[in-house]
Amino acid sequence: MKGRYLVLIALAVIAAGLLSGCAGEEKQQVTTPSEKKEIKAAFVYVSPIGDAGWTYSHDLGRQYIEKNYGVKTAYAENVAEGGDDERVIRQFAEQGYDVIFTTSFGFMDATITVAKDFPDKIFEHCSGYKTAENVGTYFGRMYQARYLTGIVAGSMTTTNKIGYVAAVPIPEVIRGINAFALGVKKVNPDAKIYVVWTGTWYDPAKEKEAAISLIDKGCDVIAQHQDSPAAQQAAEERGVYSIGYHTDMSKFAPKAHLTSAVWNWSVIYSYIIEQVIQGTWKSEQIWWGIEKGVVDISPFNDAVPEEVRKMVEEEKQKYIKGEVPEQYPFVGPIYDQKGNLVKAEGEVMTDEDLLSMNFFVDNVVGEIPAS
Amino acid sequence: MIDPGLLASLLASSIRAGTPLLYTTLGEIITERSGVLNLGLEGIMITGAFTGFAVSLLTGNPWLGVLFGGIAGMVLAFVHAFFSITLKANQSITGLMLVLLGLGITGFLGRNYIGEVAFYIDPVKIPVLSDIPYIGEILFSHDPLAYIAVLLAAILWFILFRTRYGLEIIAVGEKPEAADSMGVNVDRVRYIATLLGGFLVGVGGAYLSLAYAKLWTEGMTAGRGWICLALVIFSGWMPQRAVLGAYLFGGLDVLSFKLQAAGVGVSYHLMKMVPYVVTIVVLLFSVIRKRVAFGAPAALGVPYIRGKKE
């Protein structure tokens, strides 16, 4: 008899374990409804919110619209691209969510597919290019903020070697590196940007090692693309400077961290939700930059001198006042690593060029791995 | 021509990257030597990483964090021991359950700890010795846990092969019925080996969050638990070989970054495969050369039921 009880307990424990494992995949949070006409918004995230990077920055936006527009929100995190995504999106649509945000490039086809079956629902896909009557896209021109951080890095380096811990070779990452490099070039034509690829979005231990490799090589400013602040920690430990990404990473490296290129998704989410509430929503391709505040840089470290701050502010104002095209700094002359002229003097790269970018500008050292 | 600075940087990194693998591998070696196969390393490591981080944050003492990381590992190992030793359940299934359990629970509980800054174990430069060019960087500039890991490998080797306790563990893992007939309490020895192993795996996880990456994020073990399962085979269930194996695998992990920083173009896709390819090659060798030194404990993964004929 005793043995049988034990087996029963054992099965219960296993079941509980498996359930908690599954529950980790998909959690929904529901808040108290507001008195206004209630809009329900759902968010589909590719990674856990806890990654402190990409998804975290989107979730800050979700919290913002929940608090400020009385929108009822729900989210599913850690949803696999091309796997579970279609089911999760469909489920939100069936549950009556008015607008569904899918926040990863890989959700594009699933979003389009589900949207066809729910013409009365609104879908918003982040970072993609496919749209429909009821599917809009949105993204931010992060390269503008990257460019500004490049100016800071180029001004602060003394070894003229700047390290960049890169994630995965896709145009978004390459564009960030090039914009950063052009910022460096503007203030310091002698400095080179050394790129090391980790092939990860968040493996803190590896990203830290990649940063250390660059520091060992003589780099005295380290920039990064991954979600974890591990590269910042490496810089702090080794007494060099660092540039963060996604959110203000200063608390992980108070001495090293100069500034971060940051997302502020609440700007776009607020805009879309207002349209939905007023009933004026239509399918758009939103790609906003620093002029709207979707991307920005975080407050400077005390180590950044006044004249550098001033120059960065001047460049930032050029975007805000419309003195430069949105594609700036991707304005010719731009040379690739082999010295070929990619864009002639005064020519501006098109959005198309930016979205398919697959070369490094001439002051970058490193290769783009074939994918 | 190899740049000595680059080589020193690579070797120092290998030791750093290999240390969490070493703790975990040593833990699993002890466990497997007693005949218990614990596939849950990934789940136990992440639990150790989270618990260590949380305790360090709450108490301000990273060493207490490491201790509790180990204890958390022990608790999960106890679950495994209970199922596989007391209930004679299928060991692979409970092990895999621990992976899901560990990743799920730490993801859930760990949410509020992300982005926090805890208290960490920092590298200590050993006076004089760390000033030796290159050698100092490679051998004498690590944190205390890295040195303890090597010491531990030596101690475990001694216990396993030079003491009665070790003999009992090995006997129980090779021929439990023989050990039983000699008066060895098979279940007790297996419990002790599994719990001790779980403790070390938990410490390996805590090393990741408190001494290596120095932060907590969900899923930060990133597959290291699985690598360690391969490392156990690689080291032929020998603690002394585990040191070599862990540093080698640690080195393979960081080699691509060193080469890239040095301007050698390598595909990181290829580099990511290398540890697994090495594992497969070693597995092949262990099959071809059926020597005792390479062999798994004979009763590995087999629950012991007294009086039951095989």
List keywords for this structure.
heterodimer, A: 371 residues, alpha/beta, Rossmann fold, 2 domains, 7-stranded mixed β-sheet, 6-stranded parallel β-sheet, globular, B: 310 residues, mainly alpha, ABC transporter involved in vitamin B12 uptake, BtuC, 12 helices, 0% strand
Detailed description of the structure:
The complex is a heterodimer of chains A (371) and B (310). Chain A is 39% helix and 18% strand. Chain A is of the alpha/beta class and 371 residues long. Chain A has two domains: 27-140 and 265-288, Response regulator (Rossmann fold); 142-263 and 299-365, Rossmann fold (3-Layer(aba) Sandwich), CATH 3.40.50.2300. A seven-stranded mixed β-sheet of chain A has the order 12-10-9-8-6-7-15, sandwiched between helices. In chain A, helix 2 (54-69) crosses helix 9 (266-278) and helix 7 (204-216) packs parallel to helix 8 (230-238). The relative contact order of chain A is 0.12. Chain B has a single domain (4-294), classed as ABC transporter involved in vitamin B12 uptake, BtuC (Orthogonal Bundle), CATH 1.10.3470. Chain B has helices at 4-33, 41-59, 62-86, 91-109, 135-139, 144-162, 164-174, 176-181, 186-212, 224-234, 239-261, 268-288. Chain B contains twelve helices and no strands. The radius of gyration of chain B is 20 Å and the shape is globular. Classes of the chains: A alpha/beta (371), B mainly alpha (310). Chain B: It comes from Archaeoglobus fulgidus. Chain B: One of its GO terms (cellular component) is plasma membrane. Chain B: Its main location: membrane. Chain B: The chain crosses the membrane at residues 6-24, 36-57, 63-83, 95-114, 144-161, 191-213, 270-288.
